[in-house]
Amino acid sequence: MRANQVAVSHASLNSGDVFILDSGLKLYQWNGKVSNTYERAKAIDFVKRINDMERGGRAEIMCVDEGEEGENFWSALGGKGNIMSAKEAGDDQEAEKKFSQDLRVVPVTMTSRSLEFGAPLRPVKQAMLDSSGLVLVDTGREVLAWVGKGADKSLRSAAISIATNYLERNNRPNSTNISRVAQGTETPTFKDCFPDWRDAAVHPAPALRDFSKPVSPSVSQIKQIDSAELASGMVSRAPALPPEQKRAKMMKEVAAFTSKTGKVEVWRIENFDMVPVEPSLYGQFYSGDSYVILHSYDDARCTTFPASSFVAVPILTFISDPLSNAPAAVKHG
Fold it and tell me: Which DSSP string do the residues of 89-111 spell out, in sequence order?
């Protein structure tokens, strides 16, 4: 049993299957009236994975049985209409067989002069995903351009155009959906294409320096910061002061940051390691990645002081924007 994406329409529903309607921060599980218990249980697991991995656990999950849909469900689906019977939808085993026949991994080789697509590989295996390059995962209904973390910059930037070229060479409709998937940000739907998919073992985070003690007599104790201070990139490092003096000190730091004085350094986190970002790419952030941003400037208390106190800033956007008003429907069964 696997999930595959279908059109966001009442015409995609049938009484014999279970469907997931992804409407951003609302996730609907629609149960056909003759769908079985196993399909419903697998769908619950799938929709929870979407919420945990792509919505940070913030989405509202709603289970809807056929015949008990509310107006919000039909509105998100694009309108109410007739539902196919299980017989009209066809045999699940036949649909699964066709999906397996269509599913393939296509290696990509690109040089400054040519673009070549290797022979399609099937049955698909996770080991076919080369972290140093780009491959296309063709499901028959859509093409997913998977980009490895070690892929050349030219491959990363050309992922969508490469997938478009692939469709043109194979005389596929221009309406075929194309998506870019970065290594480490794979969605549950993507992973479901690989029967042998295994998430990488979780490595323990590196030990963090204990900031609870002063680094030197001239630097006061680092204190835990609240979200407002983090958003400003400023931390009050002085001992307890009257509100006026505390505000004055913070405003000096704000001025140092906004006037672009001092030095800014940026690192991207890869496998819990800090990888420097080229200065020419400062300001460009990729969904699914986390960054460390350090702003250092001259201060009377010392030669150079890190205004951000070495704060890691996670970028919490997604390949498919969870706040988008454009819903997506996924069939499970």
Answer: H--HHHHHHHHHHH-EEEEEEE-
